[in-house]
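pasting for ref
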Amino acid sequence: MNFFNKSDEDKWKEKYLNLLDQQELAEKLSVENEELLCKTVVRLALIAKGFQKPLDPYIDKIYNAVKSGLQNTQLKQDLEALTRAVLTLNEIEEPDSAEVTSLLFEFLVTLYSDETKVEAFRQIEKKQHHNEFKSRNDLFNALLAVTEPTSDSKELHAPESVDSTERIATKTVCSQLLILLNDLEVPFEFEARAQLLRDQLQTSHNAASLKSLLNQFVSLLVSIKNHMELEQNDIQEFLSYITDQLTELGLQASDANAASHQSTLSRNKLDQFVAEQMQDLQKTSASATNLDPLKQIISMRLEAIAQQIKLHREQEEQQRLFAEKQLDELSCRILKMETEAVELKSSLVMAHNKALRDPLTGIGNRISFDERMETEFSRWLRYKTPLSLIIWDIDNFKKINDTFGHKAGDKTLKIIAQLLSENCRNSDFLCRFGGEEFTMLLPNTDSESALTLANKLRMIIERTRFLSSGKTIEITISSGISDFKDNDVPETVFERADQALYQAKNNGRNQCIIG
């Protein structure tokens, strides 16, 4: 005996199926947002990797934890480990470097043969190593006290020899400082100061200026160090911010998953309750002998089912609103982080491009040369196509600086860079290697073809004139050329080209030679 008409059954069935559809939609949204969160974390991990080498293992763990899906327990542990690593990053001691000081003392020991003075220099070096001098002036005064000639010294009777020795010593120290400065990776902000110091080291060879040059050199090093520490602090603050954001995202995702799980349990509970009530109704209907009590029982059962469904819908609505709020907050936060990541990537690209450019000439610098050389060398190893290197050096550049001033020297460098750049192929790479020296990498070009191009460029520059302070300045340039051969590495090719350039200079300049 069936006490439900067809329309009532369809009505309850439709309500039940609608609830199931809403639940499935909520679960689908939760899965999609979890995938979006994982992709965001993976992209941020790829962007952050490489900023701080000690943090890379922790970033790799986070990357692996979310690459195949959100693993809350593992992600939480990895985030806590990354946070601890960021907080303790400042405690990592930087290696102590005293190359300049060590070089100075080695030079002094080599210069003086007097054992008493040698021992005095060693004692001063020990004091400097233990930071016993309060300032650089105290160190310089101690060195001057040792190097100052005594009354019975032969140096008093040979002032010309003393002057000559001082000039040689000063020139040697300036040369070594110049080498150290050229090997130093100078940030773009300090390139002008570094170039001015290079010019002074090349032109100042008297003892009176040595103290000032040393002070400028040390000041430049300190400024670069402070600048790098500031950049490091900015990166650490950003990584700390990202860590906090990822932690919050992880917690919100966990809440969303918990809400989804609770909704599933509630739906299963409702299914079980309805099934039990319907089963009891079937049993009661089958055994009923009186209509009125049966109607009353059925009415109670239906009321209980209706109340349970109403309660379930209210709970579902609350959970849905909570989930929507969580997902909206999560989406906004992810969108904000993606925007910040794009801005950061753009800033990094701009900073990287700026770091690869020579600020005076606008062409590549030594850092960009090293990167391009690595790329071209790898291509040569794989395909064995010809690859040549040209090293250019402006003839008598010091004379131009001394005679016409540094502005004329800067203009000379700009003109050379422009002429070389305009008269080579797009596939060729040109950079200012340092000072008045330029380098050029020529893919798919052997040494003979490179020599033809070099002589063409040399003649173009030879015909170039420009005015400075009303005076006409002529420019010539020399070059050394070498191409890659079997068993070559970049250093051997560079050395051959450098030796060829040296030969071109000795042969009278304004010429190109293959090494």
